[in-house]
């Protein structure tokens, strides 16, 4: 256009470059969605570590069973839910669509399915607690079924939002891929 102190090109005030400095919306969306999914993955890792700690304490008998109950059956397959999160994190550096799709499918299989099974497994105990006020398993003085239902509810929300944002991220990656193919 022109040098810093020299004459300008005819017909311009020097501000016609601003349209080239905008980042395409799907790239902005990708960065934002990656950030959201990462936050959800880290939240999932915290939940996973808490369940792992509860299972280790229960099996290794580090505390009496009246303080930390033995794990429910749904907690064992839920331990595999760390794999979809790792696949999700691996998909981010190069926008790897196949890793993200595998992460979404395995999230349903290893994360959501055990949570549904867990809600069904614990329902009779929750019903007994509600109707009769009797709990037989405890976690630090609280009814184990109440604590674990709280974990199930929070984990279901985390995985639900993770799937939602992953789908939107996948859509933004497809948009950028389609634009590259058109060029």
From TrEMBL:
InterPro entries associated with the record: Jagunal (IPR009787)
Membrane topology: Multi-pass membrane protein
UniProtKB keywords: Endoplasmic reticulum, Membrane, Transmembrane, Transmembrane helix
The organism's place on the tree of life at top rank: Eukaryota
GO biological process terms on file: endoplasmic reticulum organization; granulocyte colony-stimulating factor signaling pathway; vesicle-mediated transport
The UniProt record lists the keyword NAD: no
Cellular component, GO, one term: endoplasmic reticulum membrane
Keyword presence, Transmembrane: yes
Transmembrane segments: 41-63, 98-117, 138-158
Pfam family, one: Jagunal
Compartment list: Endoplasmic reticulum membrane
Family: Belongs to the jagunal family.
Protein name as catalogued: Protein jagunal homolog 1
Biological source species: Piaya cayana (Common squirrel cuckoo)
């Amino acid at each position: 256009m022109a040098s810093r102190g020299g004459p300008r090109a005819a017909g311009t005030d020097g501000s016609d470059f601003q349209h080239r400095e905008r980042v395409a919306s799907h790239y902005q969306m990708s960065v934002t969605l990656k950030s959201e999914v990462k936050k959800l993955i880290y939240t999932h890792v915290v939940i996973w570590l808490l369940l792992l700690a509860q299972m280790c304490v229960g099996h290794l008998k580090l505390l009496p069973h009246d303080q930390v109950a033995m794990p429910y059956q749904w907690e064992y397959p839920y331990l595999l839910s760390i794999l979809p999160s790792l696949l999700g994190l691996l998909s981010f550096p190069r926008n790897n669509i196949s890793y993200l799709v595998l992460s979404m499918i395995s999230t349903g299989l290893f994360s959501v399915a055990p949570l549904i099974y867990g809600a069904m497994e614990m329902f009779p105990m929750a019903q007994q607690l509600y109707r009769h006020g009797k709990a037989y398993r405890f976690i630090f003085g609280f009814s184990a079924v109440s604590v674990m239902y709280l974990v199930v509810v929070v984990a279901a929300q985390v995985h639900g939002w993770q799937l939602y944002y992953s789908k939107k991220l996948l859509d933004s990656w497809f948009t950028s891929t389609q634009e590259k193919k058109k060029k």
